[in-house]
Design a protein that fits this description.
Chain lengths: 408, 408
DNA sequence: AAACTTTTCCCACTTACTGGTCGAAGTCGC
DNA sequence: GCGACTTCGACCAGTAAGTGGGAAAAGTTT
């Protein structure tokens, strides 16, 4: 363990680090090819990175007919932590520098208990995982929480159903406690980052991630970057009004999208269908277990229960109608569906696709894949570590998008 | 007139040129302060720009208590042309390097006559304006046409009601004819650029421009850049379905937003109200002139005609309901309303604001101005020249956003 | 006219990076 | 086993970009 300043000094070092993160150990020659720099320059920067303890030697590669390359890789002890706080659960992972998960843990929480309680639980989980993986120090922590987040300030802003979280300095608390850089974002955004990094949207710079969970939200990628909007509330589509009348939403309004279809709405409708005897399958399950969740509904659909299937189709149609409008507006290259309700599988996906393709312009949908999340529950933590590693593996964190774009 | 290579050689020259464009003549000292470069470097680059014929001396400034500055400005003979093709009209302007309009001309066309006819008319107008302003050569041409455009390829793609335009190489034709760089974009996008450059959205990097004209469309700005979407169809909100039933749209579908409210829809409804005797004001106008347009409707509203006012309010509500959904999704910093229907004035704006504020989340609307276009008919041509001047005043046009962003 | 202010020109110096050369370290053919 | 060939990495001189100090230039103020 070096005690050197573990800091990226320039743009070239940042590029090299991200190459090593994304492509694994590479030789100096391969790195020279990948970045447009001379071998001398690459060698110099690698020496500096090695001295800074960010990079290390990785032995010899097999010869390709000449002198064998000596491989270079990210420092073996580099560790990132990701924290994905949901409404009722928390997911924590520790990865190495290449963002391979070394250990992961899930726990039940109630986000309404406030930031102190939740952060205490999260910290404990991180500490446990550190012990488990023999992690001495963390290079960075990424975290996501439900509801609108001020990314630049690192805290939640007026979260609807999360008392005590408003302006609570989550990012700075994490940064202090673990003595490393930290970033906080909306949970849907980090899931979108996850799918972009290692999931269905790999290489698709402009896409929408739609989370159908307890609530409904979207993560928006524009040219490889999260679009957060001016107040950090972009993607907040759960409370779009889809009807004048309809069920009352948790937010107090009437006709919100997530009052028609979401984890909460589906549970409500499922229990009703069971109690009213419209779905024998769900009635049996309810009697058996005393409650119903998304998996019960999915099972009922698989078993061919017509009422349940109709329920899913109607919900999918509501979501699809909103997405169709957003597709016309935004013209994304892909839509990724995630969150708990993605367990509803093919029935839901078919309805979504049908509605979106039927209601949007042909030009905007002719190349528009609508697919399920590839990462499932891990999308959030993976996105969180990707987000913080992008940050750590960048030159001057102060020099951000806005400034760089101006140059072009 | 120099015959030197009039070409920007590096990023610093690009920055200097844009400074001179946006802030007018400046002294070397002021330029040094504005860019973060040493005075020596600024002097060297200015010399090169002068040699390239892009920049020239502009005499002495008044002394501020010491040696007076010698001012530098863009070459006096720099000229940009902007072409804004609408469904029924065409607008052309020639500006100097600082994007001040030197001459402007408007003409009536029918875009359905095809690109050959329209481009011939446009070229003639540009030639007329060149003669009028004594312009020897153009430094660049920006143009906008209705419907989806492939920006990178420089032509329209599957435009709904524009036979013959599909894949017709508009950009390259202009570039060849006038022997200068040219860019082609969607007409709504260039209007948005215009409002960003010199209109209501000055300094607001993330906003929506909504054109309510013959059709309905939106221009989307994200962090100071136009968002065109993966197929160039972003902002195509006119055919969003707002109802299961309703008037048949020109696109063949039912319930499209612009079938409910647009220039075409309003004319239709106005004539109907006149013929059915519901609006005495419009009936009189129709009898008097044989036809009705937006200005007649505006006059009727000003005169207090209750049926017309209700008509505008209902239309505004339809637009507002769609915008409210998009605001929740996109979280812009401003909405600018333009196009012919903005002549409807306060009645329309009030209804839009009311609907948007009522139906979107408080967080996304608490800082959301909804304002009328400041540039009116000139937004398009001004945006077009701004677009092409950004292009000409940039280093390597090949090195574009995607690449630059990757560095950060 | 002297003192002061501000700008511009000039030049030595640093920094970032390039690209060629050469030895090191392997494989391959015989 | 040895020389020819290939590939890699270290070294180093050279270059382009940019910095920053100093002096001259060209005004104003006293």
């Amino acid at each position: 363990m070096t005690t050197a300043v573990r800091k990226v000094q320039n743009r070239n070092q940042a590029r090299l680090l991200r190459l090593l993160r994304d492509r694994g150990p590479l030789s100096r020659a391969e790195l020279t090819d990948a970045v447009t720099l001379s071998k001398s320059k690459v060698a110099v920067e690698l020496d500096r990175l090695t001295a800074a303890g960010l990079v290390q030697d990785a032995g010899q590669a097999a010869s390709r007919g000449g002198r064998p390359s000596s491989l270079v890789r990210l420092w073996d002890g580099l560790r990132f932590a990701g924290i994905d706080v949901g409404a009722t659960s928390i997911n924590v992972a520790i990865t190495d520098g290449g963002l391979t998960t070394l250990a992961q843990r899930q726990g039940d929480i109630d986000v309404s208990q406030g930031p102190e309680v939740v952060l205490r639980a999260a910290s404990q989980m991180v500490r446990d995982l550190r012990a488990e993986t023999g992690t001495e120090s963390l290079a960075g922590i990424g975290a996501g929480v439900p509801g609108p987040v001020s990314f630049s300030e690192g805290f939640s802003v007026v979260p609807p159903i999360m008392p005590g979280w408003d302006k609570y300095p989550v990012r700075d608390r994490l940064s202090e406690e673990f003595d490393c850089p930290a970033l906080l974002d909306n949970d849907v955004n980090i899931m979108a980052v996850g799918e972009f990094h290692a999931g269905a949207a790999r290489g698709i710079g402009t896409f929408m991630f739609v989370k159908l969970g307890t609530g409904v939200g979207a993560g928006i990628f524009v040219d490889g970057h999260v679009h957060r909007g001016v107040d950090g509330s972009a993607g907040d589509i759960g409370h779009i009004q889809v009807h004048d009348q309809g069920p009352v939403c948790a937010c107090g309004n009437i006709g919100c999208l997530e009052a028609f279809f979401s984890g909460a709405a589906l549970r409500r409708d499922a229990v009703l269908a069971a109690q009213e005897g419209r779905s024998p399958f769900l009635a049996a399950r309810l009697a058996e277990r005393g409650a119903l969740d998304v998996l019960d509904v999915a099972d009922a659909a698989t078993a061919g229960d017509p009422v349940v299937i109709a329920m899913i189709r109607e919900g999918g149609r509501h979501i699809g109608e909103v997405l169709a409008k957003l597709v016309s507006f935004f013209n994304p290259g892909m839509i990724v569906i995630g969150g708990g309700l993605s367990n509803l599988g093919g029935t839901l996906l078919a309805e979504l696709r049908g509605t979106i393709y039927r209601r949007s312009l042909p030009l905007a949908t002719r190349n528009l894949p609508v697919v399920m999340s590839e990462l499932g529950d891990s999308a959030g933590v993976l996105g969180a570590v990707r987000m913080i590693s992008d940050h750590v593996f960048s030159h001057d964190p102060a020099l951000r998008m806005a400034d760089v774009r101006e140059l072009a």
